[in-house]
Automatic annotation (TrEMBL):
GO terms for biological process: lipoprotein biosynthetic process. NCBIfam families: lnt. This is Apolipoprotein N-acyltransferase. PANTHER family: APOLIPOPROTEIN N-ACYLTRANSFERASE. Signal peptide: none annotated. HAMAP family: Lnt. The gene is lnt. The lineage of its organism: Bacteria, Pseudomonadati, Bacteroidota, Cytophagia, Cytophagales.
Amino acid sequence: MSSKKPHFSLLVLSMSAALFLSLAWPPLPFVFLLFFAMVPLLLIELVTERFRLPAWTCFLYIYLALVTWHVSTTYWIYKTTVTGGVLIHLINPLLLTIPWLFFRWVKRRVGPVTGYVGLVSAWLALEYFHHSWQFAFPFMTLGNGLSRYPQLVQFYEYTGVLGGSLWILIVNISVFIVIKKAFVGQEVLFSRIPARSWLVPLACMVIPASGSLLLFYSYEEKGVPVEVVAIHPNTDCYDVKYASDPGDLVKRYLALTFREITPNTDYVIWPETAITDAGWLENLRQDRLIKRIKDTLAVYPKSKLITGAILYERYNERPAPEALPHVQYSSASKVWYYTYNAALQLGGGNTIPVRTKKQLVPVEETIPYVREFSVLRNVVSSLGGFSFSTRKVNNNVFTSANGNIGVTPMICYETLFGTSAAEYVNKGSDLLFILLNEGWYKDRTGAAQFMHYACLRAIENRRSIARSSNDGVSCFINQRGELLQTVSEYKPTAIKQTLRANSRKTLYTYFGDYIGVVAIFSTAIILVIALWYRVRGKKPETLLGKQ
């Protein structure tokens, strides 16, 4: 690295980071690479500083690494939408460069120690923010990368997924601090690194992993047994599902249900939008398909069916509907209406609990900040041709036949949001059900990633999970995040499992993503400190060596 413009070395570092992050990401098994994957990015910042290269050079190579990582791990998005994929793969990495630029600026103003803290705080604050705005895409949250090995992340019941991100960042920085000792001017001499220097990174990696393994093997399932049946219809989303008569689809679902249902079955789960047209919300009890399903399953009075459905609700409010996003007009019925991606519970009794999807897929299911980005309506086609709305009044927890068990059906994209699952558990959910389509991307990689992420929701709240996927992966997950039974076959089937309905709450259930809140305040404090150093003209600290 003796050239005046070491761009080849910077390119190698950039591609190394992308390679490590990609190989470490689920469903691939090389998770250990996550603990070194950010080191090349830290080296990019170090090299650009040592060679006095401008900040945009640092930004460019880090951005290149992050874009490559995103594309290589979520390439399947392009099978759903090219426009949406391009937006995600350009915007998300762009946001993730902000902590690195903040790190570089703070390090120059204050010093390396504060810079490292600023990097961690800003990264965690950004991940926290990225769970809450309308362009939310928390798919690439660092802590998700550990989801393939639930044995390593049992501490998520205390920290949530941001605890995993924190762990990964700390280990990477501790490894970098050791490697940094090899850099003398513009030369690299690894012989200068004492062997004992690796004790700190090793401890940072081993101690949390050991504690997690202890929790994993000592944890015992809690709660009463509940028998659950989940169907796996394997219905093509493009050519069959939305082109078929809804009655024919229901007939198929009922046939699959009767393969596994017993008099002891408490719940049956059908996938997202299984009922492709459930009619008007206010007329739900009179809908012929709903009545047919209830009549057919009446021979099993103990069983409750939870199914995905597309529902419509008339708009009867003010202001004028033309001024509101996601309100559509039916020329046939001459009414304005909302369209919902919903979940219903059918069984004994006249009431039909309804829950509408809260977190909609940006661009695909809903246009974020629709007034500002209305142009996207013309360039992006929605999934199945629907533009969905959210509903202010929502029934988040359904109850069992005896009223003793609360369950929440989460719909597809919602499983990426740990705080949402915690919210439902706080409201009385003892089991979590996940309804999915998954046929849109015609790829098992995306389905496997969603499945592994669901394991984190189980650990965070110590709740068993049942997943019914139309064309991806249907499975059951226990309270330790273990996969009990999976099916991803290209043929219709059904699976059955006895799960435990747990009513106890975890620390994460009570406090949610508190790590993100702390990170926001920490970032603000570091920003003030850096500005104060600049105004006062103070020299940066030099702890841990040269800048």
